[in-house]
Amino acid sequence: MKKLKILLPSLREKKRYIAFQVVSERGEEFTYSDLEAAIWNTMLDFLGEYGVSKTSVWLLKDCWDQKTQKGILRCNHKSVQEVIASLGLIDRLGDNRITFKVLKISGTIMSIKERFMG
Amino acid sequence: MNFYDFHIHSQFSEGGSSIEDITKRANLLGFKGICIAENLKNLNKIKSLRKNVLEVSEKMGIAILIGFEAETAEELKKLVGVRREYDVLLVKGYDLDLNRKAVQTKEVDILTHPEFNRKDSGFNHVMARLASKNNVAIEINFREILTSSKNTRSYICHNIRENIRLCKKFKVPLIISSGAVSHWQLKDPKILMSMGCLLDLELNEAKKALSETPMNIIKMIKERQSKEWIRPGVKIVR
To answer: Which residues of A fall within a CB distance of 8 Å from B185?
Structure first.
């Protein structure tokens, strides 16, 4: 399939990266897919399909650190509050109780990676 | 910025977590201070509670205040009578008469979730005017949204939004709190702020609701507990 020509930087959607940490009851190590499902389900419940479509939310797979339980969510610059509020509504992952700690919100992934992802 | 959560229940009242667990979690999430909301039945245990709270507070390095939450008009009357013995007076909103009484009473600091268990918002322009006059903060309770779902959650969000609109119009102080009954329900200040923004607050207003309003309440507490203070509006001037 022919690839799309990449948009000019000025025409691309403005992104924000949200670094977060999952705090769990007994220090369980959750996988990327566990977390992705929980985030999608909660956001669809809270914001609805239409609302989620506006956020352009994406959990970055290569930035999920299973040991430290730290990860990065990407969304557009207009939907940061929606995404963070939705994270607050996730209080369980399977049978485990969890809390999200928001570490940093940034416009570039580099600054977050340097500071929080080691 | 200093953030405060002024509505947390420990295992002494209706909560399930110890003060140590709550404080540890609040410290992790970056709160500068918290308020443990107690029931009237614990009023006689206040000395031991304060001792416990002081120990934990010194150990963890965050401020812990003791608050009492009145659930009925009689409880409110009793708590107003011993106002200097504890720090924060909260009134559990749900009953219209109690909501009205709370905003009329100068000793009250916070009217918690006026829309709780109601179809309407439990708060109108008359109450907003009184709350503004008597400096009673109106609470936005995160637990209400967290523990509800589907249509109930949307009704709650709508009612909170209505209350916020009135509070903004009549310049009533707003306070955002987790309303946690367990340390697992404590939320990051950024999450609370974002929820405030979704409920039609501006970002600076949401920040104010998490830091400036609680700080003003703390200032009032210090004033109230000084020797010069007699009652709201009356103090000894030397």
So the answer is: 91
Task: Locate the chain B residue with the closest alpha carbon to A44.
Answer: B150
Q: In whole angstroms, give the CA distance from residue B79 to residue A117.
A: 49
Q: Could you tell me whether strands B63-70 and B33-38 are parallel, antiparallel, or unpaired per DSSP bridges?
A: parallel
Measured from the Cβ of residue A97, the count of other Cβ atoms closer than 10 Å reads 16
Distance CA A25, CA B48 (A): 29
Q: Delineate the domains of chain B, giving CATH numbers in brackets.
A: 4-235 (3.20.20.140)
| pLDDT above 80 (res B89) | yes
Among the listed residues A107, A98, A103, the one whose alpha carbon sits nearest the alpha carbon of residue A115: A103
pLDDT for B118 beyond 70 = yes
The amino acid sitting at B111 is L
The token pair at B133 is 């006059």
pTM of the model: 0.95
Taking the CA atoms of chain A, what radius of gyration do you get in angstroms? 15
* ipTM field: 0.95
Kindly report the nearest CA distance between residue A85 and chain B, in angstroms: 5
Q: Which long-range contacts (CB under 8 A, 24 or more apart) does A73-76 make?
A: A73/A17, A73/A18, A73/A20, A73/A39, A74/A15, A74/A16, A74/A17, A74/A18, A74/A109, A75/A15, A75/A16, A75/A18, A76/A13, A76/A14, A76/A15, A76/A16
